[in-house]
Amino acid sequence: MKSLALFLLLFIPSLVSFGQTPIYFHINSHNEEGSPDPNYSDSATYMIYREFARIIGDTIAANGGKWNFQTDWRFVAGALKYDHGTPSTQSQNLLKWLYENRGVEIDAHHHTGSGISPYNYADVAHLIDSLGVPSSKNVGGFEWQDTTWHVYERGLRGSVFLSYRWFPNVIWGGGTPNHVNDLNTYGAWKPKSSVSVTQFYTNDTTKRVTLIGNGCSNLIADTTNLTTVYNSISNAITYAQSHPGKFYSGNLMFNIRDLNSTLISKIGQIIRMLKPFFDSGKLVWKTLTEKYNTYNLLYRNSQNTTLCADIPTSVYQNGAEIPSEIKLYQNYPNPFNPNTKINYELRVTNYVKIKVYDILGNEVASLVNETQSAGSHSVEFNTSKYNLSSGTYYYALEAGDYKEVKKMVLVK
């Protein structure tokens, strides 16, 4: 057991984060209100999507995630008409059940000028309140007009509920490929025009309403390549760790209208793939309101305007560039069976060892044992060669005096 204690003393500290700069992370769903989206206030269509939303609420909560549910007036109308007495949500309407039992934050969403409904954001917030759910102070989605910030700054009065005035704290956007003109980073407003995405309105810290975006936002659909999503977030983490002291915000996004069993499975899978980042503190789950509170408390004078596409080269983007430090990345996939890949970077030419250990500290495999040049490298671990059982294993990188270890899980 002494050898195990020494092994843990040498390597396990690399699994613990001290003073690092995290990316505050959440999941949000987008709920449109017009064609080609389903009419969510229709019983048949609504009940299908409410059940999908209930299942995804269970999936996100079971993995420790935080979900912001953007809802338009039609989904609220469906909840008002058809949700009462549903056994699966303990006789509560869906949005109230998600809020009270799964910690979901409910955001008002509306398309101004769409001609679809007479309701504006304030009206939708009031409808959410009528369900027994406190509407958040977040403007779900994003409006293009430059004047909207100032409208929300002084509070928005309802178009239908004229006596109701709503005072949101946050205007935010997703920055996904389908929302290229949304806010892209925390503290940076949308581009100044639909043509140029290089010039941004900046957040005015003297204003009551804060402008939020997400520097690393990924839209998840049932055709999404999860490896691409994982790499995008990994790149953002690498950037945040090398540029400390800033506020970084990221998210996963999906459309309610796209929910099906395949998409639900993918959302659960990508959350589990990212779990090592959360375990190490490099990603931290927070709802939008929690992000806003954290920003106000710790980062009020810290602005970040980095897009995912601007993140410097890492092992996943361009193996030819010489890294600035030695880096061992989390294996992918993880959990795995029977193969997994380990990526790492070397700052200078060095003699490299990569070995795999079981939970008792016994060496079970030697993957690399040679001199390697500076740059990005990868090695595959095929467990079928070693007759290993399911369980937790550690892989350790040694390069000169540098030592780092990470945990991986084999599931057969």
CATH domain class of the largest domain = Alpha Beta
Number of strands: 20
Domain module count: 2
What is the H level of CATH, i.e. the homologous superfamily of the largest domain?
Answer: Glycoside hydrolase/deacetylase
User: Strand count, sense and closure of the main sheet?
Assistant: 9 strands, parallel
Distance between the termini: 27 Å
Low-confidence stretches at least 5 residues in length (pLDDT < 50)?
A: 7-18, 174-201, 305-324
Radius of gyration: 23 Å
Helix content: 25-40%
Order of helices and strands: HEHEHHEHEHEEEEEEEHEHEHEEEEEEE
CATH architecture of the largest domain: Alpha-Beta Barrel
Mean pLDDT: 75
CATH topology assignment of the largest domain = TIM Barrel
Number of helices: 9
* Relative strand content: 25-35%
Query: Judging from the principal axes of the Cα atoms, what is the shape?
Result: elongated
Structural class: alpha/beta
Structural summary, described in words:
By secondary structure, this protein is α/β, with parallel strands linked by helices. It has 2 domains: 20-310, Glycoside hydrolase/deacetylase (TIM Barrel, Alpha-Beta Barrel), CATH 3.20.20; 318-410, Immunoglobulin-like. It has 9 helices and 20 strands. Strands 1, 2, 3, 4, 7, 10, 11, 12 and 13 form a 9-stranded parallel β-sheet that branches. Helix 7 links the parallel strand 11 (216-219) and strand 12 (248-255). Helix 2 (43-62) runs parallel beside helix 8. Mean pLDDT is 75; it is low at 7-18, 174-201 and 305-324.
